[in-house]
Amino acid sequence: MEPYLIPVVLAAVFAAFTVSAAAGFGGSLILVPTLALVLGTKSGVALAALLLAANNVVKVAAYRRTLPYRKAAPIIVLVTLGVFLGAKLLIAAPERAVTIAVMVSFVVAFLAESLDLTRWRRIGSPVLAFASGATSGFSGTSGPLKGLALRGLGLDRLHLVGALSLTSLVGDVTKTAIWTDASLLVGRDYLVALVCVPLMFSATFLGRRFNTRIGERGYTGLFWAVMVGYTGRLLATL
After folding, report:
1. Among residues 170, 208, 211, which one has the least CA distance to residue 79?
2. How far is CA 137 from CA 30, 86, 201, in A?
3. What is the pLDDT of residues 173-197, one digit of tens each?
4. What 3-state class would DSSP assign to 235?
5. In which compartments does the protein localize (predicted)?
């Protein structure tokens, strides 16, 4: 990485961690394209997963009192299965295929919103959960589908953020383990994650404080703002 890019990357990391801590998801919206641009698609997706996995440990600790283990468990299992499949596909896929997959994942999210799947939340959540895991494992981001799947559980904002954090942690740890075994992640990547630890704590504190002050209505706006952000990325790739 060129030295002049380091401040840009660190700023993107801090912004991603803050948004993720406030909304429960959305970190990949910033982190994946930034790292993919700097390091290449595969390396960027893999490093983003490692950083987000480490950050989710801090987030889960921060929201430890509002982690809905029982309600989120089925979603987590389906997401993990999807992640495993998608991550395995990433290892064997050529760089161009992975880049296209990033675009396709947003097309899927756009169609999900267009069809208004929230009317069938309980029925659609398992399907969206597995699809979010698969797109996350293959393209590095699953925000829209994961958000819709967990929003279907009808949780308040703190428990929803807790569920999103817990689900993201399991998914990102799964990806990190698979990609480390496949040598997509090496020692220097873990060193980068270690350097970013102070950013994880400060950004999580800032994001959680913001979440607790905006109320349910404000969080709903934030949730859909992140969803619009993902849609914006979709439009930008057309």
Report:
1. 170
2. 17, 4, 25
3. 888 888 898 888 888 899 999 999 9
4. helix
5. Cell membrane
